[in-house]
Input
Amino acid sequence: MPYALCPDNRLFSLINSVLTNILELYVKLIGLLLVGFVLGRKLPATVPTRLGQFLFWVGVPISIVAFLRKSDLSGQIWIAPIIACTATLLGAFFAWLGIRGKAYLTKSVPQLPTQGSYILAAMVGNTGYLGYPVILTLVGKQYFAWALFYDLLGTSLVVNVLGVALAARFSGSIQNHGNVSRAILTNPSLWSFGFGLLFRQVAIAPWAEFTLDELALTAVVLSLLLIGMRLANLTCWQNFRWTSFSLGIKMLLVPLILGCILPLFGLTGAAAQVVVLQMAMPPAFATLIIAETFNLDRDLTVTTLAIGTMVLLVTLPMWLKLF
Output
């Protein structure tokens, strides 16, 4: 057998490629998060807010349109949001079991705001601002549509409907359902997602394609900087016991259970890898916004966000090895 076709050499080449991608990802994540952290300490508090608004209304929608043009939409891609909703509900269920188990063993339960933050952290992942750059680096643009479907038609809908409903329940407040519907319908990411599906069929000049790609990559970089800035503003780290429980459910238990049954749905290879990585993302920053809006346990939410982001650096190689 020729040397170039030797299976051992192909395996070595594959392992080397995976390690290179992981190293590239870690350099990007750690480097940009650190830069964002420093900027968050130096710049006025209004800068992260303005940057977040820019990404929400402009940056992320442009990146969605750009990446959809390079994505493969064949196969069972519509199963991605179904799995996202399943993972969210499973996380909430395990979190509820944890609360009931503690009540049974210790005859005590945490306060309602703590329960609400705990359940939200166990069910809602950062599949957008953090999930997108991870998928792009480790899997590539071809299967990026799986990440989009998972995030926009799964995570985003759940956090705006079920997440808000749970927060209202555990805070004792009454949420206007009209406001929830309005938040979903006016989400620019969902509109750009629909536009991007149509725009895939439109031929544009090479320079326009290049500009669109560069704007999309810039949005990815800015999203990582924004996460670093947000982390720089987190000051209260408490409730490590409930934090470890929620992160164990969100980043280990749920992706392991659902990841093992993905072949039953015909999902293998890169598509399955995208779904598993999205399931294994740490809690989303949207949980902090909800916690502040509904007066839940902000300290617990802050702790899960900060520790979850650091834990991701440890768990990523594990998921790549398992799937």
Summary: The mean pLDDT is 85.
